[in-house]
């Protein structure tokens, strides 16, 4: 074989150059094509091969061609540079210390190869050379600048000549300091000088064999790596003899501590540039040159005057600065600090230090999101699957701003990106956290996850992990921040990760939580990244490190952190644990002693409390029986406990029972040999809930079908949790258990066992998150959607292990919850008004305080003719909640807040009728309609809305639309504040859309209309005028593609498009006084008000007709928060046959009538009989009967008539046929709300006095 190719060392040379050499080498040596790959693998070296194996993923390296290998390695080591960035690098390049002009010019030429200058290359090189040259005397650059038509080669040659002349002049003028730095002894040669091509002294340069070689350090041809002048010259300042340890001394320079090396061979003290920057001193130029022992010379960067702390105080000294090298105390400082004998010198091999390692890798703990390099997630689908698309789920106005911020943050961080259309889309769900903030989750459970061909990459087995840690004395656990989000998704796979939101479509560019294949992909990447490092194991996003000694541990930690740093990852500092003697990992306690069962696993059995009831004894015996095959003599042990279960046996707990209980518990702890966690075995999570606690057992299913427990847990329910319904308690048990054992369950397919059959349907992942479930269960279902599981039913009698733990739970310390209910604050311009604000103002309002007092005393002290007349006339409709008063369901507003409420009601400029209708949904005070009218009359914008036009001829009406988005009307408004607005109105619901346009081309108009279609659906008909946007061929084609009937109104007859025209005029009047900066905000406020106020034509709010419900607005913040009156209710419970006073609503009955409880329907609902007739009543409509009949006398109590629209409820038996009845939401949306169902819009001002 001709020539020699060394192995490739990453970081020392260019891969591009290395491959060119290898390609030439195999051509010269005529290596056959079938052997080239294996020869290349053998030559490239272990480090390069390890990197290549990681880059190719699952492909076999041996089956790749050398050109495919080059493609992978080139992308990794020498990615194609960006031309602009390379030009910046060229123009900012500076001549290095000790670098000749010709070497500087050669380096510039190499950089310019990627700059793409074309014919201007020569000029660019000349300019970069002159700008970056080192010219302390400033005469070389001046000489070049005066030259006309100067070329790069001419500039290089002239600078070289002037530099040679200056050097000769310096030798004649100045003295030279000699640094007698200790170096290895050199062999004297007859040639006297080294060859600068290979550093050899046995030949001249013209005979050098390295003339054709490429340097591994700089990549240039003509010299070896050892002779490369671009490498630091350690012989100038540092000892290059490996077995000699440095003599170190601690000094204080400018009061900054610094460790330096004693060097008696150097006449001056020197620091490197990196150290000098920390000293905060001024650097001055110097003409002194340093000469080494071998005769080579160089010039320092400069000299600084600093203060050195000595035993006699601070002294000013000189300190020289060089580009690189050790920090040296020379003879000049030694004389100041004292003789060698008196210096406290430390002769040490510098050990690794934890603080220093963490400091060097501090970038790992930054707050920015990391990006895993050289690995992208790829999603593979099962054969013949169809795309799955889900529409966006509605989000309340209260959450919308918070969700918007999260989506914007994700987009800014590059986690998601906006897309216009997609065949795939998963919905987002937005549960509230305990602190009132919003969590945005993606529901992949019923769509994408079922269609993914999940990567079968194995998770590491428990035995594999623990074998790596054997012999360790201390342990470090590393936690990766937002682990999966640090992995980018392959471009081709991103379309599957599209999410549908109220803001449109986004797709993930990072790997999201909840994706079925995410754990396997992440584990594969981590195994590849950490491969080859001893004493380290990784399980998903947790990494554990150890070592047989402290230094070995530190070295491993350093290697791991450097790998993470080079890979672009980020860690969570507060979750990392360093050098712990005992850590929890994979569910076991790991220490120097070995692997032990975690005490938390058997704590649930150890802390079982003494039974106090027969049911608790029965549960404990059931638990014992579940593991009866592992306990010898079980019957004799628990015989005293079984005696308590006999019929007609008195419950007596004595010493015999206590001994039996203690012995049984001890036998149970010894018998329940916990299984080691094995990722290859199926997992079963059995859960159960009782009235006072919840319990769970995590088990492996062995090959013989038996279940063997891995861990057990239980806890007491809080006082509020004990009030949950049965189905909520059972669901809570599952969610709590999954969180408890998340480290085992994440990334696996496991089974959940419950004895509550309805959960099989409600938590069935094939059916998705239930929309009709209670909000609490919806939030829990969202959390569970991030796991892959099946749910199975097991009879309570067969679920005794979890049942016993739930009935005999342990006390677990938990964070206390505040009983204060959350309030949704208004996010509007101006002051914020909430229910609490109104409470405070009510307490300070004299009139409302008197009304409150009158209400409490049944208005006995009322006298006519005062400020309370308005309230007295409505006394039967006034109620009290907390410190607030309500008229019907509308808040009574204190006088101090009425102006603010009026201003907010009027923000949307809806006109008199709609503003009054809007107010009747939320607030009331005497003569509120007159105040609204006065406010609107004083508004300039509203005055402009009152059009005075001659009466037009009768217009033929459009045929009524049959459903939402049957027909929409579109038009343009403007210019308004220099902007044009595209408006669209749905004919059926009157739902408006208004979009501020950047321009009004057909393309832009189609794009915005498509956004409307994506939110509301594609209409059957679209009506527009004859504007150029709507009459173009492109728009006609757009209508045809979507099968939309496009109807254009006659020219110069806008009334044919009357719906859009009327809305345009309304909107124009509302925005008459706005400006360009406030246009977006004013438009949004108008749309919120218009969409939620009853429309004059339909008598229904557009939002109700479009979505079947009212959307939340700022007015909903005024609604009183439901108080927690559970303790009051406990004192008013009734049983069948109890005599009670029943609230009646018929005109022919007094307000209260004596009745009896016929049937108990629940905690708060009863069937009562009054006069032989059955009625359904809430507990708030019942009073305990005290035996007095005077209260039932006709006329003794004011009789209230039933308000219009409310009918007497008939008896409705509880619905026990639907298994989901316990979790039904109180809200059942209807398709269309008719005016007849909205009686609360009626005018109550008939009461005004």
Automatic annotation (TrEMBL):
GO BP term, pick one: DNA integration
One Pfam assignment: RVT_1
Domain Reverse transcriptase: 412-590
Enzyme Commission number(s): 2.7.7.49
Stretches assigned to the Integrase catalytic domain: 950-1128
Molecular function per GO: endonuclease activity; hydrolase activity; nucleic acid binding; RNA-directed DNA polymerase activity; zinc ion binding
Top-level taxon of the source organism: Eukaryota
Enzyme class: transferase
Keywords: Endonuclease, Hydrolase, Metal-binding, Nuclease, Nucleotidyltransferase, RNA-directed DNA polymerase, Transferase, Zinc, Zinc-finger
Residue ranges annotated for the CCHC-type domain, each copy included: 193-209
PANTHER family: PROTEIN CBG26694, PROTEIN NYNRIN-LIKE
Record's protein name: RNA-directed DNA polymerase
């Amino acid at each position: 074989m001709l020539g020699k190719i060394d192995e490739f060392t990453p970081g020392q040379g260019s891969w591009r150059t290395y491959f060119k050499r290898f390609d030439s080498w195999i051509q010269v040596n005529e290596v056959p094509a079938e052997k080239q790959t294996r020869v290349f693998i053998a030559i490239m070296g272990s480090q390069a091969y390890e990197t290549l194996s990681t880059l190719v993923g699952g492909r076999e390296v041996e089956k790749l061609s050398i050109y495919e290998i080059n493609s992978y390695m080139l992308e990794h080591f020498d990615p194609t540079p960006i031309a602009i960035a390379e030009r910046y690098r060229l123009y900012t390049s500076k001549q290095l210390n000790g670098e000749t002009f010709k070497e500087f010019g050669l380096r510039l030429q190499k950089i310019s190869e990627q700059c793409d200058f074309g014919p201007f290359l020569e000029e660019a090189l000349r300019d970069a050379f002159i700008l970056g040259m080192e010219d302390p005397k400033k005469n070389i650059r001046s000489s070049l600048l005066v030259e006309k038509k100067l070329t790069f080669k001419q500039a290089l040659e002239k600078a070289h000549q002037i530099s040679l002349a200056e050097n000769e002049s310096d030798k004649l003028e100045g003295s030279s300091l000699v640094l007698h730095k200790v170096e290895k002894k050199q062999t004297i040669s007859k040639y006297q000088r080294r060859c600068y091509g290979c550093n050899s002294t046995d030949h001249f340069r013209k005979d050098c064999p390295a003339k054709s070689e490429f340097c591994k350090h700089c990549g240039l041809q003509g010299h070896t790596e050892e002779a490369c002048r671009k490498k630091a010259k350690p012989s100038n300042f540092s000892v290059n003899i490996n077995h000699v340890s440095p003599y170190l001394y601690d000094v204080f320079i400018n009061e900054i501590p610094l460790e330096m090396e004693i060097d008696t061979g150097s006449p001056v003290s020197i620091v490197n540039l990196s150290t000098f920057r920390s000293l905060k001193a001024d650097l001055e130029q110097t003409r002194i040159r340093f000469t080494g022992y071998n005769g080579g010379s160089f010039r320092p960067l400069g000299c600084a005057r600093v203060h050195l702390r000595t035993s006699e105080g601070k002294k000013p000294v000189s300190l020289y600065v060089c580009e690189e090298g050790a920090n040296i105390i020379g003879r000049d400082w030694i004389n100041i600090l004292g003789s060698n004998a008196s210096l406290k010198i430390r002769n040490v091999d510098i050990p690794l230090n934890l603080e220093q390692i963490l400091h060097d890798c501090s970038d790992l703990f930054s707050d920015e999101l990391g990006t895993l390099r050289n690995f992208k997630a790829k999603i593979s689908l099962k054969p013949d699957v169809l795309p799955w698309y889900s529409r966006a789920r509605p989000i309340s106005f209260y959450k919308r701003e918070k969700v918007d911020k999260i989506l914007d943050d994700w987009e800014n961080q590059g986690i998601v990106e906006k897309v216009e259309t997609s065949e795939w889309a998963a919905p987002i769900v937005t549960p509230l956290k305990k602190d009132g903030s919003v969590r945005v989750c993606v529901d992949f459970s019923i769509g994408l996850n079922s269609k993914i061909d999940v990567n079968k990459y194995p998770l590491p087995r428990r035995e594999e992990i623990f074998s790596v840690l054997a012999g360790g004395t201390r342990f470090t656990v590393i936690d990766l921040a937002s682990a999966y989000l640090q992995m980018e998704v392959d471009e081709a796979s991103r379309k599957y990760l599209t999410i549908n939101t109220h803001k449109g479509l986004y797709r993930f560019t990072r790997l999201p939580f909840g994706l079925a294949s995410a754990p396997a992909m992440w584990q594969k990447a981590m195994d590849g990244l950490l491969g080859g490092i001893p004493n380290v194991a990784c399980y998903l996003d947790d990494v554990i490190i150890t070592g047989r000694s402290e230094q070995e541990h530190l070295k491993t930690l350093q290697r791991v952190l450097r790998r993470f740093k080079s890979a672009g990852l980020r860690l969570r500092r507060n979750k990392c644990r360093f050098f712990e003697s005992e850590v929890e990992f994979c569910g076991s306690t790991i220490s120097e002693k070995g692997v032990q069962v975690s005490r938390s696993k058997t704590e649930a059995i150890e802390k079982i409390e003494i039974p106090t009831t027969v049911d608790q004894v029965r549960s404990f015996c059931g638990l014992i029986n579940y593991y009866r095959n592992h306990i010898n003599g079980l019957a004799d042990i628990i015989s005293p406990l079984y005696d308590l279960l006999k019929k007609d046996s008195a419950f007596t707990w004595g010493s015999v029972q206590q001994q039996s209980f203690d012995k049984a518990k001890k036998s149970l702890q010894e018998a329940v040999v916990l299984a080691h966690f094995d990722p290859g075995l199926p997992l079963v999570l059995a859960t159960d809930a009782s009235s006072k606690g919840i319990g769970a057992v995590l088990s492996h299913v062995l090959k013989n079908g038996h279940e063997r427990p891995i861990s057990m847990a239980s806890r007491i329910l809080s006082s509020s949790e004990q009030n949950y319904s049965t189905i909520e308690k059972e669901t809570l048990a599952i969610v709590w258990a999954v969180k408890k054992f998340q480290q085992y369950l994440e990334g696996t397919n496991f089974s959940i066992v419950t004895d509550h059959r309805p959960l099989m349907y409600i938590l069935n992942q094939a059916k998705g998150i239930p929309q009709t479930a209670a909000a609490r269960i919806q939030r829990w279902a969202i959390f569970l959607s991030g796991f892959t599981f099946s749910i199975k039913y097991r009879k309570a009698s067969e679920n005794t292990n979890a049942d016993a733990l739930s009935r005999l739970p342990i006390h677990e310390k938990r964070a206390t919850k505040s009983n204060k209910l959350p309030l949704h604050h208004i996010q509007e311009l101006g002051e914020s008004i909430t229910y609490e604000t109104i409470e405070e103002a009510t307490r300070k309002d004299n009139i409302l305080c008197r009304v409150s007092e009158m209400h409490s005393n049944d208005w006995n002290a009322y006298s006519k003719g005062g400020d309370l007349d308005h309230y007295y006339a409505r006394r039967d409709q006034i109620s009290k909640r907390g410190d607030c008063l309500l008229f019907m369901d509308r808040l009574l507003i204190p006088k101090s807040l009425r102006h603010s409420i009026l201003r907010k009601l009027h923000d949307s400029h809806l006109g008199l009728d709609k503003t009054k209708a809007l107010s009747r949904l939320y607030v009331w005070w005497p003569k509120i309609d007159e105040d609204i009218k006065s406010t609107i009359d004083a508004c300039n914008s509203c005055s402009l809305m009152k059009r005075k036009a001659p009466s037009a001829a009768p217009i033929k009406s459009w045929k009524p639309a049959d459903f939402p988005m049957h027909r929409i009307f579109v038009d343009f408004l403007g210019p308004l504040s220099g902007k044009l607005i595209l408006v669209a109105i749905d004919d059926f619901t009157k739902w408006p859309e208004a979009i501020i346009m950047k321009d009004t081309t057909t393309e832009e108009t189609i794009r915005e209309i498509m956004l409307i279609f994506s939110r509301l659906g594609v209409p059957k008909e679209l009506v527009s005028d004859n504007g150029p946007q709507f009459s173009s061929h492109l728009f006609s084609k757009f209508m045809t593609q979507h099968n939309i009937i496009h109807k254009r109104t006659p020219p110069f007859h806008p009334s044919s498009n009357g719906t859009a025209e009327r809305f345009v005029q309304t909107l124009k009047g509302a925005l008459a006084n706005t400006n360009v900066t406030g246009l977006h905000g004013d438009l949004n406020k108008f749309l919120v008000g218009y969409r939620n106020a009853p429309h004059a034509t339909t008598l229904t709010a557009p939002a109700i007709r479009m979505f079947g419900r009212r959307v939340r607005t700022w007015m909903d913040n005024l609604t009183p928060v439901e108080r927690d009156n559970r303790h009051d209710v406990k004192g008013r419970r009734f049983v069948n046959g109890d005599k009670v006073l029943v609230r009646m609503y018929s005109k022919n009955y007094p307000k209260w009538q004596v009745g009896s409880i016929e049937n108990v329907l629940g905690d708060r609902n009863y069937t009562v009989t009054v006069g032989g007739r059955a009625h359904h009543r809430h507990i708030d409509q019942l009073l305990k009967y005290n035996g007095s009949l005077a209260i039932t006398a006709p006329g003794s109590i004011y009789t209230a008539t039933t308000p219009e629209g409310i009918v007497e409820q008939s008896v409705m038996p509880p619905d026990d046929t639907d298994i989901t009845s316990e979790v039904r939401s109180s809200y059942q949306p209807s398709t269309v709300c008719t005016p007849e169902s909205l009686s609360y819009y009626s005018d109550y001002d008939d009461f005004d006095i």
